[in-house]
Specification:
Chain A: Keywords: ATP-binding, Cell membrane, Membrane, Nucleotide-binding, Transport. The structure holds 2 protein chains of 2 kinds. Helices cover 31% and strands 23% of the residues of chain A. Chain A is an alpha/beta fold. In chain A, the strands form 2 sheets. Chain A has an 8-stranded mixed beta sheet with strand order 6-7-8-3-9-10-12-11, sandwiched between helices. Chain A has a 4-stranded antiparallel beta sheet with strand order 2-1-4-5, covered by helices on one side. The radius of gyration of chain A is 21 Å and the shape is globular. The relative contact order of chain B is 0.14. Classes of the chains: A alpha/beta, B mainly alpha. At the A-B interface, helix 2, helix 3 and helix 6 of A face helix 11 and helix 12 of B. The complex binds adenosine-5'-diphosphate and magnesium ion.
Chain lengths: 332, 339
């Protein structure tokens, strides 16, 4: 498996937004790979660049002001950064699909749900309207929508949030894509609905062998679903690990803080731990590690030089000076 | 079923509103200072109290106001709008005579402004901030702010006097006689007569005044289309449509336009209502025997039945158009229907 070409290979991706107030460095030198059939988790506080990086894969970053300034996104031997808009249109919704955080606003309010799903099938599979609609109904059934024949004729406002997210999933999976990107798919939903949607995604991943990129600011969601996790901070990957190891033995001070900040249900109520300070402004580019102002273990070197990505062991990477062999603790 | 109930409800509301309008119009005419007898009787007749008395009896002006009001309401719903003090013809007859001329003109004007307004709006939004966008926006500002009488004179000067490619004021050239009135629309009546040349002549006479009238509404429609389309293009569901792999054109045509044009409907409706009220200045300059001219003459001679008739007709236009727009809203936007 490891020797095989990865399904998706992102190398040194950088994205900037040139706004009137200044340049926002949203993604800085992002690299990761996704193997077919995998579920990869991406976590990080809001503003850390999770959405922008996934929109980058879809080439849907609003432009202007956003622009991919550097890097490659290799999918099936093609660099998506360079290909034409026409070629990209054939990949979107067909090879790579995406579902979004806001199920309430992500569906077109004046088009029937069934028709919105059928549209992808008409576009990519060349199906006749009627056949596509029938397949859309089937698809709605397989994402667990009761009464799909009736629901398909309803408009989005007639459905609950959870139902709409199921419609979004049905729409994204209609053409059996190789990759499904889920950008915080459950953040706007109730906890019980959230669990159902995650179950559904896991089930569809097994059944259709669709690789999933699961984005969340919620470590709980990611730990439940993913084999491998990437932790992002200010547009950088700062740690990459298997999900289990990340929780048992987090390495980066930021990850340690994140895990401590998860509310636990226990008998004696410990006060919740938080990471002090705020996410820095993405308009300022520092020379050092962008986490140092909030870091408990900060060293002089952290302020001067960006730490490299360090391979700690097989499938375990961290971007922190603490783990550089021979690095002395130089104090603050 | 749901849709039918919605439509019936809208029409029931229409009748209630008509009642309200009839009341308001009556109150207004009573509040306006000025004696209609003075305005309508000659100096000699005025000096004879008997004639003045007879005039007042004839028009019910001797009754108590409250009685006048009930008579007024009853008559409105019987479509008996009284007799014009000015022309001695029934108001219904007068309105039937002049309203088709206005409808014909207003319809062409609203068609022109809708087609060009939406087209320019889309172009402008798609080529946002480009030179094309700048030009379209300048034209739409011009359209909204240019005084119609001035624009009308310029158009006449250029196309009639200088270039001589379009006819001057009036509905038909002198060489044609007015077609037999079936609908009152010259373009349709001339076709019914089978006189194609007359049809062309009627159309040519419509072009200048319709263009002048269209300018204002077109400016509004362009601006509304542009800004709504830009708003819609940045919504989440448009992002979803793009994520499906739809091309830019498909996204606009099948996902953005429907949503963006909903508010534009209101602008079109208001614009049409406005035009149907008869544009006094443009109708005067183009010697167009429409509602605007009739309204102007009625006001000038304090012809109460005339003023009331015109006001009711204009209000009815607005209400009918609003009802139609509401129903269209409900047809396009499923969320409106269930409210
Ligand atoms: N359209 C935009 N214009 C300017 N800056 C943007 C835009 N979209 C995102 N950003 C910036 O990019 C950074 C990453 O945002 P995002 O990917 O949405 O974060 P996340 O999804 O992790 O919460 C943020 O600093 C945000 O302000
Ligand atoms: Mg996000």
């Amino acid at each position: 498996m490891n020797q095989k070409e990865p399904l998706l290979n992102i190398q040194n991706l950088s994205v900037e937004f040139r706004t009137i107030e200044g340049t926002v460095y949203a993604i800085n030198d992002l690299s990761y790979t996704l193997n077919s059939g995998d579920i990869l988790g991406i976590v990080g506080e809001s503003g850390s660049g999770k959405s922008v990086s996934s929109l980058g894969i879809m080439k849907l970053i609003p432009n202007p002001p956003g622009k991919i300034v550097n890097g490659k996104i290799i999918y099936e031997g093609k660099n998506l950064v360079n290909i034409s808009e026409k070629e990209m249109e054939q990949i979107r919704g067909n090879d790579i699909s995406m579902i979004f955080q806001e199920p309430m606003t992500s569906l077109n309010p004046i088009i029937k749900c069934g028709k919105q799903i059928a549209e992808s099938l008409i576009l990519h599979r060349g199906l006749k309207k009627k056949v596509a609609f029938e397949q859309a109904v089937e698809m709605m059934h397989s994402v667990g929508i009761a009464n799909p024949e009736q629901r398909a004729h309803e408009y989005p406002h007639q459905l609950s949030g959870g139902m709409r997210q199921r419609v979004m999933i049905a729409m994204a999976l209609a053409c059996k894509p190789n990759i499904l990107i889920c950008d915080e798919p459950t953040t706007a939903l109730d906890v019980t609905i959230q669990a159902q949607i995650l179950d559904l995604i896991r089930h569809l991943n097994k059944e259709m062998n669709t690789a999933v990129i699961m984005i969340s600011h919620d470590l709980g969601v990611v730990s439940e679903l993913c084999e491998r996790v990437i932790v992002m901070y200010t547009g950088c990957i700062i740690e990459e690990s298997s999900s289990q190891e990340l929780f048992e033995n987090p390495l980066h001070p930021y990850t340690i803080g994140l895990i401590k900040a998860i509310p636990k249900i226990s008998k004696d109520r410990e006060p919740l731990q938080t990471i002090e300070g705020v996410v820095p402004n993405a308009m300022e580019k520092t020379d050092g590690c962008s986490f140092w102002p909030r870091c408990k273990d900060v060293m002089l070197r952290c302020k001067q030089e960006l730490p490299p990505m360090i391979q700690v062991k097989q499938d375990r990477k961290v971007r922190c000076w603490k783990y550089v062999v021979g690095n002395r603790h130089e104090g603050i | 079923m749901e849709r039918l109930r919605f439509i019936i409800k809208r029409f029931a509301l229409l009748i209630v509103m008509l009642f309200g309008v009839a009341t308001i119009v009556f109150v207004l005419t009573k509040l306006v200072p000025g004696d209609s007898a003075v305005a309508n009787l000659s100096q000699r007749s005025l000096s004879d109290p008997k004639i003045v008395e007879a005039y007042k009896v004839k028009h019910g002006l001797d009754q108590p106001v409250i009685i006048q009001y009930f008579i007024h309401i009853k008559n409105v719903f019987k479509l008996d709008l009284g007799t014009s003090m000015r022309t001695n013809q029934s108001i219904l007859y007068e309105l039937k005579r002049c309203f088709p001329a206005t409808i014909e003109l207003a319809t062409l004007a609203i068609l022109l402004s809708t087609i060009f307004g939406i087209f320019f709006g889309i172009i402008s939004a798609m080529k946002r901030n480009s030179i094309v966008d700048q030009i379209v926006r300048a034209i739409s500002v011009l359209g909204v702010s240019i005084p119609s009488f001035w624009f009308a004179l310029i158009m006449l000067y250029v196309f009639y006097y200088k270039l001589q490619i379009l006819p001057g004021p009036g509905r038909l050239s002198a060489s044609f006689s007015a077609p037999v009135a079936v609908t009152g629309f010259y373009m349709i009546d001339s076709l019914i007569e089978g006189d194609f040349l007359k049809f062309i002549d009627a159309l040519k006479h419509l072009i200048l005044p319709a263009s002048v009238l269209a300018a204002f509404t077109m400016g509004l429609i362009t601006r509304t289309t542009r800004s709504n389309l830009l708003d819609v293009m940045s919504t989440d569901y448009i992002r979803t449509a793009k994520a499906k792999g739809l091309s830019k054109v498909s996204v606009i045509v099948s996902h953005a336009l429907g949503n963006a044009l909903i508010p534009v409907l209101t602008v079109i409706g208001l614009g049409f209502g406005n035009l149907l009220g008869g544009m006094v200045l443009v109708e005067t300059i183009f010697n167009w025997p429409g509602l605007g001219q009739f309204a102007y003459n009625s006001v000038k001679s304090l012809d109460y039945p005339g003023i009331i008739g015109v006001s009711l007709l204009i209000a009815l236009n607005y209400m009918l158009i609003n009802t139609v727009i509401d129903i269209l809203y409900g047809t396009i936007d499923p969320r409106v229907r269930c409210k």
